[in-house]
Amino acid sequence: MSELTRLTLAEARDGLASKKFSAVELNEAFIDAVARAKTLNAYIVETPEKALERARASDERIAKGEARPLEGVPLGVKDLYATEGVQTTAASHILEGFVPPYESTVTANLWRDGATMLGKLNLDEFAMGSSNETSYFGPVISPWRRKNSDAKIVPGGSSGGSAAAVAARLCLGATATDTGGSIRQPAAFTGTVGIKPTYGRCSRWGIVAFASSLDQAGPIARNVRDAAILLRSMAGHDPKDTTSVDAPVPDYEKAVGASVKGKVIGIPKEYRLDGMSAEITALWERGVNWLRAGGAEIREISLPHTKHALPAYYIVAPAEASSNLARYDGVRYGLRRTGKDIVDLYELTRAEGFGKEVRRRIMIGTYVLSAGYYDAYYLRAQKIRTLIKRDFDLAYAAGVDAILTPATPSPAFALGEKGAADPVEMYLNDVFTVTVNMAGLPGLVVPAGLSSDGLPLGLQLIGRPFEEETLFALGEAIEQAAPKIALPEPWWV
Ligand code: GLN
Asked: What integer best gives the mean pLDDT of the chain?
């Protein structure tokens, strides 16, 4: 493995600026690593020529002293982001072969700042899943393995390709999206850092929609600083997305290393689940102690509607998905199967084009929105959503700056181990993350330790709306205090 791929994004940026190596050399090192990591199935499409073309342009700019914030930095892009001239599938058969004639706003922002693209990263189909096993292009394999075992482990989902690629050093950072936990849960499973920003912080334009009132773009990165650097470029107002917020984007990197003294950290008692594993409880306790040692004030809080978040999410998200996915009809994009008439065309295309989990969500969503059940399910779920948001509002009004919770109820599991007989078993992965999407808040996950079988575990920090800087400061404090987690050495080449 080239030493260049071991650098963090910040180190690579600084190395390029001081001409220790060229953007072409850096990009070549990653292109080679990606080409040798097929076993992990992290990328659906590789774009080495594109990366090199941009890297050459970056070297020219660096030579002229005109480097932009991400000049020459190679990234991976979750295949949910439309990329002009490069196939974009949402990991679904129904979009196979779709080449968008436009670029998503978030990726356009990254290219504006000089980043290069290594390719499109695998994910759960339409971002529905927690293990990256629902992709039409096959599961992503985590670079992590349990101690003394070569069982294949999931990288989490839905941004499993993004998390695996960052952890396996197949890019310096990656774009991801989070509707119910899809940035934070895979980050926790792979020992990487992920942030779901406040709803409206990043534009959703050009990102394949799953549940529009919950979806948010964000980065997965090697460490807190790298995540802060990436978010600064990704975020910002976009007139093409009416839900994006017109507020200045802070220089998030400045918040990394800021003191956490005097910050009030809420510890929600409802996140202490019955039967939660002792190692997750212990990890959480250690997180509390690290922040206390940094000068933060720890306060027990109550978020009483937490227990309703998961059931309400699994009504709201499928409802929105069923309507968003109505556009895949065999007429406009990708796959088309024809029959005797137009109804046949819709039915044949959708039956073949969508995988099992996506079909399940469309059926649930259609049911909860139907005239007879709308009030009983959808309307009630929306009311619960309001109550969940109010729980957080009250905590913040009482002076809490951020909330610390575990990221996931367990470490990563093996392929095929969960959800085969009962999909709810898979849905339970999101128990600590969905509340944050329901309330539109920012959430950061940072690696904090290893499980007894040697897999990464993460802690989650939940912030006030648009106060991502507080999360970066607190996240860095945890990162500094936690034992260093060495990323796995490549067994997959
Ligand atoms: N795992 C959750 C789901 O399957 C969340 C997915 C996401 O955040 N995109 O819906």
From this structure: 97
Say what the pTM is: 0.98
Residue 71 resides in a domain: yes
pLDDT attached to residue 7: 98
Between the CA of 72 and the centroid of ligand 1 the distance, in Å, is 32
Dihedral pair phi/psi, residue 44, rounded to 5°: -90, -40
Please say whether the beta carbons of 117 and 127 come within 8 A.
no
Q: Catalytic annotation on 182?
A: yes
Give the containing element (helix H, strand E) for 450: strand 443-450
In terms of residue numbers, what domain contains 344?
307-380
Eight-class DSSP state of 265: E
Hey, what are 269's tokens?
A: 């008692």
Of the residues 328, 358, 380, the one at which a domain ends = 380
Q: What is the pLDDT of residues 120-133, one digit of tens each?
A: 999 999 999 999 99
Which residue among 122, 125, 126, 130 has the greatest number of ligand 1 atoms within 8 angstroms of its CB, and so is best to mutate? 130
Cis geometry, peptide bond prior to residue 158 (ω within 30 degrees of 0): yes
Return d(Cα 450, Cα 368) in angstroms, integer.
Answer: 40
Q: Any residues with CB less than 8 A from the CB of 96 and at least 6 apart, and which?
A: 87, 89, 136, 334, 335
Q: Which of 387, 330, 373 is nearest to 354 (CA)?
A: 330
Which one of 336, 364, 380 terminates a domain? 380
Give the C-alpha separation, 84 to 87, whole Å.
Answer: 8
Please indicate, yes or no, whether residues 196 and 311 belong to a single structural domain of this protein: no
Q: Report the number of distinct structural domains present in the chain.
A: 2
* Residue of 81, 158, 427 best suited for mutating to test ligand 1, as the one with most atoms within 8 Å of CB: 158
Helix, strand, coil content of the chain in percent (nearest 5): 40, 15, 45
Write out the H or E segment, with its range, that includes residue 78.
strand 74-78
* Residue 55 three-state SS: helix
pLDDT over 90 (residue 149): yes
Q: Which pLDDT tens digit goes with each residue over 379-422?
A: 999 999 999 999 999 999 999 999 999 999 999 999 999 988 88
Name the phi and psi angles at 231, rounded to 5: -65, -35
Which letter, b or e, does each residue of 254-292 get, where b requires 16 or more Cβ atoms within 10 Å of its Cβ? ebbeeebeebbbbbbebbebeeebebbeebbebbbebbe
Tell me the CA–centroid distance for residue 180 and ligand 1, in Å. 5
Together in a domain, 124 and 237: yes
- Phi, psi of 385, deg, nearest 5: -60, -40
Catalytic residue, chosen from 58, 131, 182, 244, is 182
Strands 402-406 and 264-268: parallel
Joined together, the tokens standing for residue 361 give 């969500």
CB distance 182 to ligand 1 below 6 Å? yes
Residue 126 CA to ligand 1 center (angstroms) comes to 9
